[in-house]
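Entry type: protein chain
Record version: 2
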Amino acid sequence: MAIQGADGKFRCRWPGTDPLYLAYHDTEWGVPEYDSRALWEKLILDGFQAGLSWITILRKRDAFRAGFADFEPEAVARFTETDVQRLLADPGIIRHRGKIEGTIKSARAYLTVSEREPFADFLWKHLDGRVLQNRFRTQGEVPTQTKVSEAMSKELKKAGFTFCGPTIVYAFMEACGLVNDHLTGCFRYEECAALARDQRPAA
């Protein structure tokens, strides 16, 4: 269930008391994102999170943005081995060659997809463009992956994206508001629901 913070507001449990995590929960997580570039950035960062905690990535996000040209896919797609070596020497990010090279590959995949349709549409079509409004009371009810995240993961991989398994994709869907997984007792549940362009109830 949601827990009451020092400010009197009830929230999901996962941010704990870390100020940075609380700010992320209160202002970003679960807000429906419709911008293609912003969605790509978050997908990449979720891929870097694999095996780590999200707070680790959050603390390094500014360094990631600096290292990856503010996550402009057109710029990242032109990265060469020189850029890979530069990033491997950057202590501000997660220095994982596979994930760095995967980001470059995913930037090129993004550009290819964008020739056919906006990347945002490529993702949102899996939900018919509507936010899935779940109604979970406890964290234990929240899934780690779903049939939708499995289908989205499969299509992303087919298009050439990397580090986008169904569990990573579901975490991405939660963060970017494709699904509303704030607990119903959390003050952000109704706020995020109101931000959706369109929504549908959970089955």
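Comment: Residues 132 and 200 are 5 Å apart (CA to CA).
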